[in-house]
Design goal:
The protein is an alpha/beta fold. It folds into two domains: 3-64 and 313-414, Aspartate Aminotransferase, domain 1 (Alpha-Beta Complex); 65-311, Aspartate Aminotransferase, domain 2. It is built from 15 helices and 14 strands. It has helices at 3-13, 65-76, 86-98, 111-126, 151-155, 166-169, 180-189, 214-224, 244-248, 275-278, 297-312, 315-331, 358-361, 366-378, 399-414, and strands at residues 32-36, 39-42, 47-50, 104-108, 130-134, 172-175, 193-198, 228-232, 255-258, 269-273, 338-342, 345-349, 381-382, 391-392. The chain has a seven-stranded mixed β-sheet with strand order 4-10-9-8-7-5-6, with helices on both faces. Strand 2 (39-42) and strand 3 (47-50) form a beta hairpin. Helix 14 (366-378) packs across helix 15 (399-414). It starts with a helix and ends with a helix. Bound molecules: ligand LHPZP3FS. The site of the ligand N[C@H](C=O)CCC(=O)O has 9 residues, from helix 5.
Length: 415
């Protein structure tokens, strides 16, 4: 069976034929039947270099032997207990020790769950109702944050989802990224704001870097107004380095959310932060949060193996950054757009200058992106299928893969 045959079946079974909207590649998505290292194998017997990497979690590449061994070892002892496990202590200690300012953590099953709980916690702790998010920021698919949401929501033209009650989202306010004055003005005129939530590096709307001093300014402004600062590090956690963006930029939030890499490619999420805030979470406190699969042993084992490996091979961050720089240099001067990168994250925008916020990223030529993306796929490179997602490299992307990616970029941008 080929991808087109699978898709015919899928269309009848699932909305848009997919399990998550951003996968709905036109005219039909390719179906993956296997993966190893930097490559995916499709049902159409193609090998593709993967720069999507499950939308970020697979920093060590597909089927990494150390991670696989850890998962297999865990599976042999069972994969769901409904009780605490020693594994969660090991992962909690590791994540806490890597993030100054993080004193307690709670594991959940996805990044969406993590941000949903962090927002509820901020409201419960502060007794205030509203939250502020960044326009185009994506914090998962729950009601409070599906307004001007990036990722698939913007890609598919539904940044404000139907079905989300206007009453509820009237408590979600928005400011542009990289605009500390707008945040200051927002917090100055509203005294009912519990938290400001943002991705310190925007990774769900392409890749938008914080201006110099922006995150420090945000820290200062939120503290001055007694508003909690939540860093959504679901993408950046262990991606921009051990300790994520908060260590890279030297700014400590009150609460952080994690997902993706901390589960080594299996479903996971976590939120954590200051002890006095976290102690408000049930059963220590009155903010309820729960989940059958929270702290799933297989995910914890995969996450631990991944993070321990990254600890032992910190030089790999430099190697991935060098690889992204090589692509950047090769692309330079080709096409009319602009290349943005940070560590192992990179993006080519079909816009002359790097976008600094949601408004600017929407000026990109998405039709040109679509042609470019299809060209890259025919060259054997799988990029996330949206101008509004970030590309990733893994430690498995070696010289040969980088050469192929660069050659494909050069060709497709020239065309
Ligand atoms: N950008 C999203 C998550 O980070 C992409 C994943 C999805 O929507 O399926």
């Amino acid at each position: 069976m080929k991808s087109s045959d699978f898709y015919k079946r899928a269309e009848m079974l699932m909305p848009g034929g997919v399990s998550s909207p951003v996968r709905a590649i036109k005219p039909y998505p390719f179906y993956t039947v296997g993966a190893a290292g930097a490559k995916l194998v499709t049902a159409d017997e193609r090998e593709l270099i993967d720069c999507c990497l499950g939308f970020g979690p697979l920093i060590l590449g597909h089927a990494h032997p150390g991670v696989r061994e850890a998962i297999e070892k865990q599976l042999a002892s069972g994969w769901l207990y409904g009780t605490p496990t020693p594994l969660e202590l090991d992962l909690a200690e590791l994540i806490i020790s890597d993030h100054p300012g993080l004193e307690m953590i709670r594991f959940v099953s996805s990044g969406s769950e993590a941000t949903m709980a962090a927002i509820r916690l901020a409201r419960g702790f502060s007794g205030k109702s509203d939250i502020v998010k960044v326009e185009g920021g994506f914090h998962g698919a729950h009601d409070a944050v599906l307004v001007k949401a990036g990722s698939g929501a913007t890609t598919l033209g539904v940044p404000n989802s139907a079905g989300v009650l206007p009453d509820l989202v009237s408590h979600t306010r928005q400011v542009p990224f990289n605009d500390p004055e707008a945040l200051e003005a927002m917090l100055a005129k509203n005294d009912d704001i519990a938290a400001f939530i943002l991705e310190p590096v925007m990774g769900n709307i392409g890749l938008i870097l914080p201006d110099d001093g922006y995150l420090a300014a945000v820290r200062e402004i939120t503290a001055a107004h007694d508003v909690l600062l939540i860093f959504d590090e679901v993408i950046t956690g262990y991606r921009v380095g051990v300790g994520g963006a908060q260590v890279a930029y030297g700014v400590s939030p009150d609460l952080s959310t994690f997902g993706k890499i901390i589960g080594g490619g299996l479903p996971i999420g976590a939120f954590g932060g200051r002890r006095d805030i976290m102690e408000m979470v049930a059963p220590s406190g009155p903010v309820y949060q729960a989940g059958t699969f929270s702290g799933n042993p297989a995910s914890l084992a995969a996450g631990l193996a991944t993070i321990r490996y990254l600890h032992m091979h910190r030089d790999l961050y430099g190697a991935m950054e060098d690889a992204a720089r090589a692509i950047d240099e090769a692309v330079s001067g080709r096409g009319s757009g602009t290349f943005v990168r940070l560590g192992s994250m990179f993006k080519y925008f079909f816009r002359e200058a790097p976008p600094r916020n949601y408004l600017e990223v929407q000026e990109c030529d998405t039709a040109a992106f679509g042609r470019f993306w299809a060209g890259m796929l025919s060259e054997g490179i799988f990029l996330p299928p949206s101008q509004f997602e970030t590309n990733f490299l893994s430690t498995a992307h070696a010289g040969r893969e980088i050469e192929e990616i660069t050659a494909a970029y050069r060709k497709c941008l020239s065309e």
